[in-house]
Structure formats: C-alpha cells, structure tokens
TrEMBL record:
Signal peptide: none annotated. SUPFAM superfamilies: Phosphoenolpyruvate/pyruvate domain. This is Aldolase. PANTHER family: 2-KETO-3-DEOXY-L-RHAMNONATE ALDOLASE (PTHR30502), PHOSPHOENOLPYRUVATE CARBOXYLASE FAMILY PROTEIN (PTHR30502:SF0). It comes from Mycolicibacterium diernhoferi. Gene3D superfamilies: Phosphoenolpyruvate-binding domains (3.20.20.60). Residues 28-231 form the HpcH/HpaI aldolase/citrate lyase domain.
Length: 260
C-alpha cells in the first residue's frame, strides 16, 4: 500500500498540509509537525508537474504521504505525477460520472485505462499491478452540477474518494464565499456529499483552512482534512512571533527558538 493508504487504514481522520509554491522546506516542516500528508496544488498554485516531481523526489525518505491536485482528467500530467511517486491525484471541478471515469482511467494501464508506463523513480519498481493499486484517485465535487450528479459520480468503479471544495461549492450555489461555512444550504450540501460518499465506501476529503473548522469537519465524518497551506501557516506563525515581540511577551524556555 502507499503511505496515504496506510495512514487512512490506521486512523479515522488524517490531517494534511497544502503547498502552492516551489518551497523546499515546506513539506518537510509539515512532516516534522506531525501531519499525515501534504498536497501539491497544480491547479491554483505556482507549480507545474515538473516542480512537483522534484518535490516528491525530495520526500522519498520523509515520513509523509503525498497527493497532487490537477485541473483536469488529462491523462498525461496525471501519469507524470504518479510516475514521480505521488500517492494520489485529486482532480478538480468534476461534474459528471464520465469525468470521474476519465480520471480513474488515467491512473490505470491498458486494458482497464489509458495510463502509459514510465515510472521516473527506480524505487517504484516495474510491477504494473502494484503501481495501479498504490495510485489513489479522488475527484472534487465543488459545483452545483457536481452535487446534482453526486450519486452517479460515487458509483464510478475504481474511484478512491470524493474531495470537497467548500469555496467553489458555495459560490456555485449562489452564495458568498464567506457563507461557505455558515449558510445552512451549503452545510447541508457538505453533509450530503459526506454521507453519500461514505455510504458508497469512498474516502471523503475536504479543505478546511483552520484547525477549528477541521475539528468540525472531522465531527461530520470527513476523513482526509487539509488544514492549511504553507503560506497560511507561515502567515499565522509570523503574526504570532510579531505579536509576541511587540507585546513584550517572552517565549517560555525558548520554545522552538534557535539561531542560525
């Protein structure tokens, strides 16, 4: 099994960080902090699949699972990030069973799919059955059209899970971005996605953005919860350090402090 599959098998909830830029230390810091996985964003982030391949290679011996979000079910970039060692792909803006099936096919070799053979790391081996088994595929439901096709999407064979995008879902449903966590209709849609996907035997994932929201989502039953991006974590930590300095407070016992 992959690291991501191992983490899910060991715990009801797993916690993730998110990387949107070409950082070297960000993923390792998430691992050091105890996160279970890190996601690399090729949809909205300043990354392409070549950047991701280098980051994945650096994490080969770091104890953290990996996922890559891609903007479509185009099989070429999906194959490249899997060949580079990603544990999972997360395909954005899926609105039909046909799109979900195309995402699954991109992770499978012939005759079941359209993935081309070409692992980029020797450690991945050459066993196509094992390579397929270790490649998890999630599709994002984040629009009203995707929500309407929820049952059909969840029935697609070979799908690992559903990953929910709360911001786009709220916008697509005609609400403000700030309503993503508070509007009853959006919350009901989130609960429907979680319940339907779980009933179909799928893993449910979601973006949270804060630990407090992450706790609420865990209580709702979501299993794969992304808490923050590296930029969010940096901003929060930087603000806390500045607040401590300007308020004249001290860092007890030099907590996490060092000079270099």
């Amino acid at each position: 099994m992959s690291r991501l599959q191992d983490a899910l098998a060991a715990s009801d909830q797993i916690w993730g960080g998110w990387v949107v830029g070409p950082t070297i230390i960000g993923p390792e810091e998430f691992a050091q902090a105890g996160y279970d996985y890190v996601g690399f964003d090729v949809q909205h982030g300043y990354l392409d699949d070549a950047d991701v391949a280098l980051l994945l290679r650096r994490l080969e011996h770091v104890p953290i699972a990996t996922a890559v979000r891609l903007p479509s079910a185009d099989p070429a970039p999906i194959g490249r990030v899997l060949d580079a060692g990603a544990d999972a792909v997360i395909i954005a803006m899926v609105e039909s069973a046909e799109q979900a099936a195309a995402a699954v096919a991109a992770t499978r070799y012939a005759p079941a799919g359209v993935r081309s053979f070409g692992p980029l790391r020797a450690s991945l081996g050459h066993d196509t059955v094992a390579l397929e088994a270790e490649a998890s595929v999630y599709v994002m439901i984040e629009t009203a059209r995707g929500l309407a096709a929820l049952d059909e999407i969840c029935a697609v064979p070979g799908l690992t899970g559903i990953y929910l995008g709360p911001a786009d879902l709220a916008i697509s449903m005609g609400h403000r971005l700030s309503d993503a966590w508070t509007h009853p209709d959006v919350r009901a849609a989130m609960a429907e996605i979680q319940d339907t996907a779980a009933a179909a035997g799928l893993v449910t994932g979601i973006h949270a953005g804060t630990g407090q929201i992450g706790k609420t989502l865990a209580d709702m039953g979501f299993r794969m919860i992304t808490l923050a991006s590296e930029s969010q974590a940096l901003r929060r930590g930087a603000a806390a350090h500045l607040s401590e300095a300007t308020a004249g407070t001290t860092d007890p016992a030099g907590q996490d402090g060092y000079l270099q």
